[in-house]
Structure formats: C-alpha cells, structure tokens
Amino acid sequence: MTAVFDTTPTASADDPTTPMPLASWPARAGAITVDILPGLGVIVTTALLALTAPADGWVRWMFIVALAVTFFLMAANRLVLPVATGWTLGRALFGIAVRRADGRPVGVLRVTGRELAHLLDTLAVFVGWLWPLWDRRRRTFADLLAGTEVYRVERPQRDMRRAVATVLVAAAVASVAAVGLGYALVYRHERAVDTAREQVAAQGPRIVEQMLSYGADTIVDDFARAQALTTDGYRPQLISQQQAVQQAGATTNEYWAVNSAVLTDPPVTPDRVSMLLAMQGQRGTDPNDVKFITATVRVDFEKSADGQWRVANLTVLKKPQMNVAGR
Q1: Does the keyword Membrane apply (predicted)?
Q2: Residue 244 domain boundaries
Q3: 151: which residues sit within 8 A by CB, 6+ positions away?
Q4: Is residue 167 part of a domain?
Q5: Residue 265 vs residues 28, 268, 275: alpha-carbon distances, Å
Q6: What is the DSSP letter of 284?
Q7: pLDDT per residue over 9-24, tens digit each?
Q8: Which CATH number belongs to the domain containing residue 215 in this structure?
Q9: CB-based contacts of 78, cutoff 8 Å, min separation 6
Q10: How many other C-beta atoms lie within 10 A of the C-beta of residue 43?
Q11: DSSP 3-state of 179
C-alpha cells in the first residue's frame, strides 16, 4: 500500500520544472472537511427549519434564502476560487492544490465536472473517497474521471488559520441564530397555538353554557356573569339581547354543550380560536311546560389581556328548536 503521509518537501505550483509531490490522504480529508462541513451544517439546519415553518409564511422563505446564500458561497469556494486563485479555503490551509495530471492548472469546466463526479465517490459507499489510500497516484474516482491529481504546494502567505477560524465561527453563529429564530418564530408560535387550542377545547363549552344559561330568580346576577365572559366589542350586542329577554318576561333558561370542535378555518392563533358547538337545553321549570331546546352555534373566542378566554362573537347556525315535554 502506498504510504499515506508524504515527507517530500513541498514545491511551488508556479514552477513547472519542479516536480510537485502528491498530497496525503489526511491533508485532502482535512481540506474538504473545512470546505464542506461548516456550510453543510448551516444548510442542514436551515433546511430542517424551513420544512417545519408554515408553507405560506415569510419565515420559510427566510430560511430558504439563507440556505441558498450558503450554498452559493460553498459553490464559489469550490468552483470559482480554485480557478481564480488556485485555492479553496481548505486547500490553502493544508497546502494542497488540484491540477491536471501534467501539473497544469484546471479550468472551471474541469473543476465543475470533478465536483459532480464526487457524487460517484459518495454513492459507491464512500469507497471513492478512500481510493487514494491505495491508488498509485492517490486519486479518487472523481480524479480518475476528470483527469486531475492533488499535489502538495506552498501555502499562501496570509494566515489561513485565522481565515478558517472566522469561517467556522460564522457558520456556527449562523446555525445558532437560525435555530434561535426557528424557536422564536416557529416552535414557540406553534406551542402557543397548541396551547390555545387545548384551552378553548376544555374551557369553551363551559363558557358558552354559563353565558347562555340564567335563572328567573337570579337573572340580574346571571346576566352580569354572562357579560363578564364576553369581550368589550361583543358585550353591547349581548346586553341588547338580554334586555329583549327581560322585556319579554324571562323564564329559567339552561343550556349545556353536547358536542364541540375547534375549527381550523380561520386558522387558530395564540389569541383567537373559533369553535362549533351543538347545544341542548331546557326552558322553564314547570314539569308540565318545560321546553327542550337544540341549537348549533359558532363561537369566536379571544384571549383578553389578563389571559382569560372570552366570547368575541356568537353566531347561531341552526336556530333553536323547542319541543314541549311529553309531546
């Protein structure tokens, strides 16, 4: 097996008369790790967050744009910089360069074809990436297809460690920031929506029952309680209905919810939920003159400043039907 580490002194890529030693496999692995891993971390993070964000919301597009920008920067590093400067960030750090088999620089088409050919290295259960360990010229499958080799050359004069550290820190900050935004804009919102749905599913039917039920002897207190269960916007409408009941001569009126469901249209928000309720009840207390009532209503709930759910609107979808007991 060909030795993995090469102790031959590096040579200048600008001097074609000087033979350039082949790059070692660890140096190549380190270079591609620096080139790919930071950007890949950002791409995976933003892709997962985009999938969890609402499909029609701006948050998903924000993550998609971040993903696209990261992919563009990775492509520029791997495809443009090698042609323009002879380096990628990782190769400059480890002092290696991709050249044609005769040592000449590679063009953008060859570099692009080589990057695409790396798919074969990966699809072959990563065997292609390990092929340099025993290939005489230390080539991957992509190198064999593109006619390229990787050589050890002199590093750039600038401090590449600082540049690489900057990129790693920027990628880590971008990933953490994306996760933070995902939590603040998606996860926390969804949790608030789930909590609102659960609260209204449990409390909504009881609220409506208390708002619609009243006794002939306790009507003043019952109406005051009902008004406290509504929003400021809906309360005048309820008061008007209560006054009409009193003028007509109120009798005991009792309702209870027999079935209910939280509606998804309009969408549930942390402070507004709509519910459909099937109601039953009875009017009057005389056993010989009790009227049994059935009705279907839609109720919009809003969360008040004190965190309590209140009725913002009540729409009767199926008018109350009354049947006299025994008939």
Answers
A1: yes
A2: 196-324
A3: 11, 13, 20, 21, 22, 23, 96, 97, 99, 103
A4: no
A5: 56, 8, 10
A6: -
A7: 444 444 544 568 999 9
A8: 3.10.450.50
A9: 35, 88, 111, 115
A10: 19
A11: helix
